[in-house]
From TrEMBL:
Transmembrane segments: 280-304, 310-330, 342-364
GO annotation (BP), single: gamma-aminobutyric acid signaling pathway
Record localization: Postsynaptic cell membrane
Keywords: Cell membrane, Chloride, Chloride channel, Disulfide bond, Glycoprotein, Ion channel, Ion transport, Membrane, Postsynaptic cell membrane, Signal, Synapse, Transmembrane, Transmembrane helix, Transport
GO-annotated molecular function: chloride channel activity; extracellular ligand-gated monoatomic ion channel activity; GABA-A receptor activity
Protein name stated in the entry: Gamma-aminobutyric acid type A receptor gamma3 subunit
Family annotation (Pfam families): Neur_chan_LBD, Neur_chan_memb
Organism field: Amphiprion ocellaris
NCBIfam families cross-referenced by the UniProt entry: LIC (TIGR00860)
One GO cellular component term: chloride channel complex
Family: Belongs to the ligand-gated ion channel (TC 1.A.9) family.
Length: 390
């Protein structure tokens, strides 16, 4: 792949001003070639400007990198990549490659209780030393390169083990950065958005707290070849007002280092835990207050006369159906777990109160009817006894 650039310079002499333009080619191996295109004087520019209505002078001011620095950078890259094999890790067969890891959290959220996942936007930074990329230069101690150089050197095969989906950012250019120090130190950063799995324990829902992990490791290199280490201040976060934790409060984070033992070998496992606590405001308005009001409404039937059968029956049936609807709506915010949550327990107790009010009237009506029926039978028996006596 070849990139083309146009560089212009402005020269002032006694006879006037001259502009020279060169066409510069940057190949995929960093080779620079230039071809002169055209040179023209200030009089040419003025003649071109005569066609404009406002006859303004045209000047070109452009900051150019000194040619010596360009040549130094080109020469350094050419020498570094000349015999470089990107398929082999640094210090292969000698010692493990140490990867220092840092994470900058741009945002977290939303968190999905139904899908058991959360979304996180991060800038993932990895630093290691590749002795094959050492160079001697007093003028250029650090080479800051864009994504075009990423595919030309060896990179760690880091994967996120609990990610369901991950996307890199490519607008307006690939969000990747590569820096090479003259001592062989490499910094590689990448911005990505990850949908990571988080197994929520919902026994205390909606008063639950969770630690959602972000787990990463090498895909193919065991710990005797690649070792991950956390940098100092390894995990940093942005301003939380831009986060989308609608139903949660961010309580803090912590990072750990473990070893994952598999049949393919032992791998260094790096984990960041994000501690979240659920806010109760939404569920208080949508579930708790309506359930409490429905229970209180069902108790109104106690002040209605027992002989007002239609009124008490309609009120009891309405409150029972309302509690059934509220219970169904409350369950829609949860996955279909087999255990009982705190909200399930609360809604069930409210439903029992409402149902008990309905049963209370049924029992009252039954005993009232039996009492009246027995009174009538007693009156009839007394009347018949009196009649026989006469």
């Amino acid at each position: 792949m070849t990139a083309t650039f146009y560089c212009c310079a402005q020269i002032h002499t006694n006879s006037g001003m001259f502009c020279c333009c060169d066409k510069v080619f940057l190949t995929n191996r960093g080779l620079l070639k230039h071809h002169p295109l055209v040179s023209f004087s200030s009089s040419d520019l003025l003649e071109y400007g005569d066609d404009e209505e406002d006859h303004h002078d045209t000047t070109v001011n452009q900051m150019l990198v000194p040619r010596s620095h360009q040549e130094d950078a080109t020469l350094i890259l050419n020498n570094l990549l000349k015999e470089y094999d990107k398929t082999l890790r640094p210090d292969i067969g000698v010692k493990p490659t140490v990867i220092d890891v840092g994470i900058y959290v741009n945002s977290i959220g939303p968190v999905s209780s139904i899908d058991m996942e959360y979304q996180i936007d991060i800038i993932f930074a990895q630093t290691w030393v590749d002795t094959r990329l050492r160079y001697n230069s007093s003028s250029m101690r650090i080479l800051t390169l864009n994504s075009n150089m990423v595919g030309l050197i060896w990179l760690p095969d880091t994967i996120f083990r609990n990610s369901k989906n991950a996307d890199s950012h490519w607008i307006t250019t690939p969000n990747q950065l590569l820096r090479i120090w003259n001592n062989g130190k490499i910094l590689y950063t990448l911005r990505m958005t990850i949908n990571a799995e988080c197994q929520l324990q919902l026994h205390n829902f909606p008063m639950d707290e969770h630690s959602c992990p972000l787990v990463f490791s090498s895909y193919g290199y065991p710990r005797d070849e690649i070792v991950y280490k956390w940098k100092r201040n390894s995990v940093e976060t942005s301003d939380q007002k831009y986060w989308r934790l609608y139903q949660f409060d961010f309580m803090g984070l912590r990072n750990t280092t473990d070893v994952l033992t598999t049949t393919a070998g032992d791998y260094v496992l790096m984990t960041v835990y994000f501690d979240l606590s659920r806010r109760m405001g939404y569920f208080t308005i949508q579930t708790y207050i309506p359930c409490i009001l429905t229970v209180v409404l069902s108790w109104v039937s106690f002040w209605i006369k027992s002989d007002a059968t239609p009124a008490r029956t309609a009120l009891g049936i309405t409150t029972v159906l309302t509690m059934t609807t509220l219970s169904t709506v409350a369950r829609n915010s949860l996955p279909r777990v087999s255990y009982v949550t705190a909200m399930d327990l609360f809604v069930t107790v409210c439903f029992l109160f409402v149902f008990a009010a309905m049963i209370e009237y049924a029992m009252l009506n039954y005993y009232s009817y039996n009492s009246k029926h027995n009174d009538r039978q007693q009156v009839c028996c007394v009347y018949m006894y009196v009649c026989r006596s006469v």
